Amino acid sequence: TFVLIMSLLTACRKDVVASVEEMNIKSIKNEKLRSLVDSWQQEDGAYLANNTAIGGAYYLFLNASTVEKGEKPTYFQSLSVGFESNVMHIYYVEKETGDTKNNRTKILYRIPMESTPDTVKIYKNGEEVYFNNIGVIEEK
Questions:
Q1: Is a pLDDT exceeding 80 seen at residue 139?
Q2: What is the pLDDT of residue 47?
Q3: At 94, is the secondary structure helix, strand, or coil?
Q4: What per-residue string of b and e applies to 37-49 under the rule 16 or more CB within 10 Å gives b?
Q5: Number of DSSP helices (H) and strands (E) in the chain, helices first
Q6: Burial (CB count <10 Å: 0-12, 13-18, 19+), residue 103
Q7: Given pLDDT bands bounded at 50, 70 and 90, which one contains residue 54?
Q8: Are 89 and 70 in contact (CB under 8 A)?
Q9: pTM for this entry
Q10: How many CA atoms lie within 13 A of 91 on its CB side?
Q11: 58: Cβ–Cβ under 8 A, 6 or more apart, which residues?
Q12: CA 41, CA 29: separation in Å to the nearest integer?
């Protein structure tokens, strides 16, 4: 009975927070991921790569490096990832800056996964947005 109760409590938990690792874009070893990130650097937005291998992970690439004429540059201040039921929620904060040399305009995160969620939702400054592109890689 104890195991059943613990299983039910674990299954009903909300707001489980995932560990997130910021990666160095220049030292990506997986060729497929490198290719995706290279192609994603052409346009600002949020991009997701799903690692389909056992013990997989998601890779989130945020890009705000291109500044349109008349717009202020932005940078990424923070990121958090949580789970509710079988939905992964990604929250990030993007802020305006006067500093055109800010190095937080392109960021790659690795989100290790124990299981694959049914749905991934992303929120920019509290509002739900959509991924510009989603790719699949296999990492051993």
A1: no
A2: 96
A3: strand
A4: beebeeebebbbb
A5: 2, 10
A6: exposed
A7: low
A8: no
A9: 0.82
A10: 10
A11: 48, 49, 50, 51, 88, 110, 111, 113, 120
A12: 17
Q: What is the residue whose two structure tokens read 């490198």?
A: 34
Structure tokens belonging to residue 122: 């992303």
Of the chain, the percentage scoring pLDDT greater than 70 comes to 81
Position 116 pLDDT exceeds 70: yes
Higher pLDDT, 42 or 138: 42
Taking the C-alpha atoms of residue 74 and residue 97, their distance in angstroms, rounded to an integer, is 5
Average pLDDT score over residue span 20-42: 92
Distance CA 131, CA 140 (A): 25
Per-residue tokens: 91 = 């929250």
- Position 60, amino acid: L
Question: Which has the minimum average pLDDT: 12-26, 78-92, 95-109, 113-127?
Answer: 12-26
Quickly list DSSP for 11-70.
Answer: HH-EEEEPP-EEE-GGG---HHHHHHHHHHTTS-EEEEEEE-STT-EEEEEEE-----TT
